[in-house]
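Listing 4. Sequential folding, example run.
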Amino acid sequence: MSFESEFVSKLQDLKDTQDSIVSLSKWVLQQNNPKGSSLIWASHLKTSTNKLNNLYLLNDIVQHAKKFRLYEFLTEFKTVIPSSLKISYDEANTTVKGKIARLLKLWEDRKVYSSDEIQQFAKALTEESSIRSELKQINELYNNLDQLNKISNNNLTQFSIQTKNSNNINEKKLVIIERLAITSKKNVTDTKSVKIEIKQQLENLILSLDNSLKEDDNKINIIDSKLNALKNVDEDDDDDELPMYEQDEEEEEEEEENTRKRPSDEPIEKINKKPTLEDKENESSKQEVKEEPKEQGSDVMSLLSKLS
């Protein structure tokens, strides 16, 4: 069985006891695979239901690595500690968060990591990510996929090596190959599951973007509709007012024309014509006619005075 598959199996069987943790920690250091150990441990932590137990395993590994001067283990685990602590801290209750903080204090006191490194670890616990939550989840899935691919590729390589000389395989070796085959198939199945999850997340993201684009189009249509409605109202107002302006102008011209005619209703030729002799005689006759009633009135008055 390869180191990766065996380590994964042991991580899955890890119990919440000091003996179980110390035993697995010792085994990891004996395998002398710092990079593989750190990647496999970090990958398992993400899906583990008991993250605190895995952090206790980490603590035992790095403290013994410091004690026995296995500095490469400290270097490799340092690369996965910030993200692993962040994941554990975000999902933890108040009690577990306090234990994680004490773990960092212990590393600083025992100089497992430097003060600057401890500060970086502590900062990662409460640091807000600038990546949107939707993309952050996809990013975490891709990181998990990378680690699973490394484990799967290593197991497949071991499987190819073990099955290369098929004529010289005894019964004991066949059992090992069968176990390796089962582990390799499980690795591939795990990577497929993560890929399916990534695909689903991307499809949901695309669907959300499509709906958002439709909403943007609706907003543009509403803006255009309201703008066109306002333009139509202005045009209708202009059509109503234009004949009134023309009517007012016509009325003003007509009134001005009437004003010029008001001094006399007679034609201009008749006003400027000099009176003839006939006109004078006619005028005199009119005056005599007007005076006759006045004379008759005076005779009647004199007759009445005599009778009285």
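-- end of first protein; second protein begins --
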Amino acid sequence: MKIKIWNTAIIFLLGIMFLSCNSKPRVIEGRSAAEEAEAISNTGGQDALASTNSVADEHKVIGEGSSMDEAHTGIQEQEGLPGPAAGQIEPAPGAVKISQLYANKEKYSNKVVKVTGKCVKVNPSIMNRNWAHIQDGSGENIDLTVTTMEDIPLGAVVTLEGTIALDKDFGAGYRYDVIMEGAVLR
């Protein structure tokens, strides 16, 4: 009998949690504080308080055709380091310059390639990998995005070897014409 009561209580609590998680608060715009207080008392707090349009504008629904800028409105961009000057980075033996990689990207598609460059930006632990941005001073300081399990310090000059992928789309506006995946330090 005790088990049946506990099971009923658990099912009841799960039902309450399900209902509260799936209820959608409504955003009511342009009300005075008195009107907001009255709405809260009448609706049991289901209305989100918003007295201007700025709250609704900050939270855009991202769908097909949205740009990465729209998806990240209000998010502060991480500051990166300046890229190296032309000729400042000496490539390791067998390494390809990043400008050559972009100029002949089809040639390197799905191939293991080695590059040497300065790490100008790092985003650690995203999608179970670290994302580094490498520049070697070739071209117009072209940025090569690299995914790796290695911990690459910001500002370090490193030689990485990984597989080149073209037109990689991770969704949410994260699309890369050229990306090096699964890179390891050499």
